[in-house]
Amino acid sequence: MPKVQIKHLTKIFGKKQKAALKMVKENKSKNEIFEKTGSTVGVYDINLEVNEGEIFVIMGLSGSGKSTLIRLLNRLIEPTSGQIILDGKDITHYNKKEMLDIRRKKMSMVFQNFALFPHRTILENTEYGLEIQGVPAAERKARAEKALENSKLISFKDQYPSQLSGGMQQRVGLSRALTNDPDILLMDEAFSALDPLVRHEMQDELLDLQQNVQKTIIFITHDLNEALRLGDRIAIMKDGQLQQIGTGEEILTNPANDYVENFVEDVDRSKVLNAESIMFPGLTVNVDSDGPNVALHRMQEEEVSGLVAVDAKRRFAGYITSDNAVKARRENLSLRDVMSDMPTVKPDTLVADIMTIIYDAHTPVAVVDDDMKLHGIIIRGAVIEALAQTEGDGQENA
Amino acid sequence: MPSLFSIAKLPLSQWVSDGVNWLTQNWSGFFNAIQSAGQTFMDTMTNFLSAIPQPIFIIALALIAWLTTPKRYGLPTLIVLGLALIANQGLWSDLMQTITLVLTSSIVSLVIGIPLGIWTSKSQKAYAVVKPILDFMQTMPAFVYLIPAVAFFGIGMVPGTFSSVIFALPPVVNFTYLGLKQVPESLVEAADSFGSTTWQKLVKLELPSAKPSIIAGSKQTIMLALSMVVTASMIGAPGLGRGVLSAVQHADVGAGFVNGIALVILAIIIDRFVQKMNTDPVTTPKLPKWRKIAA
């Protein structure tokens, strides 16, 4: 069962909702609808599922409805129609008291501008969620201090938010959200206000944190690189409507429409694509059973100058060049004796990291897993092609 | 077409007089109860304040000022010198009566004004109704309030307090309203997102955030109440104001100045005490400096 399910969720701001709804069904643009009806389409007919323990990123430019969508989840904004289902229970019509309970126990939110209370110390800010639940002072203090310890902020607990840097304030924001021990973290552009270095650091911390606590995280961003870095899955929004949902790689390699394609054009692919997505099935020779003649014959047939050497269990062993195969035949050696080294990478190694390896290598690079099983090979041309794909498209258009 | 000027003069003043008369006649029990309760309360307060020996009163007040802000000697010095001067001029009992009048009007104004400010900030309709009434109260010359005050409560402290409250109420309502309206939307949203009830939001976020504004408004209200002391003395409110009024009537510059300076000293002392409530927690030294990191 998915942790969160959203069905046909629609939010229209303004008075002439019916007219606006009719126009949006006719595929009219947001501006056109606003001019005619004075109503704004926040989000329209969103359907998605978020699984337990995943980081689900909702991405879009400003005005795409992503911030509205996340506020619909804890009903800070009331939906016009549709359903929000949490743990299989429809919370769309929960009354005020039931909703308070959901916000207190199930979902906590982290804000773009931190939204720390300026008149409260860091510790008092962190305690806030427990305080309003009526948790006794000693217990909430202990829990808040533990959360601050985890984020290495404990020594600042008696300071006020304005005395901390942006990055630290957001760590407090995150600690405050985690102190409640919610199932779901709603992060609204949580890192967008931070400078790039700190943002990168915070992304790492969030990923580390996720390894340890396994929350369901719904993360809003307008930054595609951030989305690709954090998201197990990504939803792309435009004008209040979903364009595509998928893993970062699915979105990059198979954009659903022109909008998504344009969107992903500028992304730094080398930091998203990994070895697995650019490798070829490698031509192999079994060094335990085959001899030099088999190897040379295969090279001739496939018009290549080298083969990956594997053992009988198809585990990676090394590399056989044509020169070495000839040498083995002449001197009557086994293939194992003439094997040369070949650099290896893991299937999930990023292209950015493969580049440095492949430029120094005289052979292709082997992709092997932890058991040394060969998955494929990467040649220099494939790396360049993967990186050049977007730029090539751009030039055609220009 | 009949000219606008051909309409007979509207008996507006008659209407207002009739209204006040009606209130005086039909609500006399109510007004009498307030009059006697208020008079008893304020007499008790004046008697209590007057019973404190002058040196003890002065030293105790200076000590409180010194304890609440250590290492600042300005206010304690002012209290000692200023109050000693008032005592020296033989105005001590007038001062006690004025303090009673000012404190009572201020407290009544704040007790009515702050909740009214909260209510108007939460309800558009309440604001639409209350705002013009406040503007009216603020711009109507203060002397006008003296007339119904006498009709309702006779002369003395209670009608003085009544007219002072009407005159002094608007700033604290307006500033409370403004302070609450200026709480950043994002903070309100954060409080909501953690599941705060309306009451929790008000007590834990909005009022603390609006505190500087509310205190600024309270200060203005208290100062207006103080300035009303002279006006209220026209309907028999005792105290320093009466001294000023009599000095005016006798064109006695010296007496006018002495009573006036006593009021000024009282105003400064009250102002500084209220200001103390408005300390910024961030800049108030509580922690060693090395633990403060640059933002």
UniProtKB/TrEMBL annotation, chain A:
<dbReference type="InterPro" id="IPR003439">
    <property type="entry name" value="ABC_transporter-like_ATP-bd"/>
</dbReference>
<dbReference type="InterPro" id="IPR000644">
    <property type="entry name" value="CBS_dom"/>
</dbReference>
<dbReference type="Pfam" id="PF00571">
    <property type="entry name" value="CBS"/>
</dbReference>
<dbReference type="InterPro" id="IPR003593">
    <property type="entry name" value="AAA+_ATPase"/>
</dbReference>
<comment type="subunit">
    <text>The complex is probably composed of two ATP-binding proteins, two transmembrane proteins and a solute-binding protein.</text>
</comment>
<keyword id="KW-1003">Cell membrane</keyword>
<keyword id="KW-0129">CBS domain</keyword>
<keyword id="KW-0997">Cell inner membrane</keyword>
<dbReference type="InterPro" id="IPR051921">
    <property type="entry name" value="ABC_osmolyte_uptake_ATP-bind"/>
</dbReference>
<keyword id="KW-0067">ATP-binding</keyword>
<keyword id="KW-0547">Nucleotide-binding</keyword>
<feature type="domain" description="ABC transporter">
    <location>
        <begin position="21"/>
        <end position="264"/>
    </location>
</feature>
<feature type="domain" description="CBS">
    <location>
        <begin position="338"/>
        <end position="396"/>
    </location>
</feature>
<comment type="similarity">
    <text>Belongs to the ABC transporter superfamily.</text>
</comment>
<keyword id="KW-0029">Amino-acid transport</keyword>
<dbReference type="GO" id="GO:0005524">
    <property type="term" value="F:ATP binding"/>
</dbReference>
<dbReference type="InterPro" id="IPR005892">
    <property type="entry name" value="Gly-betaine_transp_ATP-bd"/>
</dbReference>
<dbReference type="InterPro" id="IPR046342">
    <property type="entry name" value="CBS_dom_sf"/>
</dbReference>
<keyword id="KW-0813">Transport</keyword>
<dbReference type="InterPro" id="IPR027417">
    <property type="entry name" value="P-loop_NTPase"/>
</dbReference>
<dbReference type="InterPro" id="IPR017871">
    <property type="entry name" value="ABC_transporter-like_CS"/>
</dbReference>
<keyword id="KW-0472">Membrane</keyword>
<protein>
    <recommendedName>
        <fullName>Quaternary amine transport ATP-binding protein</fullName>
        <ecNumber>7.6.2.9</ecNumber>
    </recommendedName>
</protein>
<dbReference type="Pfam" id="PF00005">
    <property type="entry name" value="ABC_tran"/>
</dbReference>
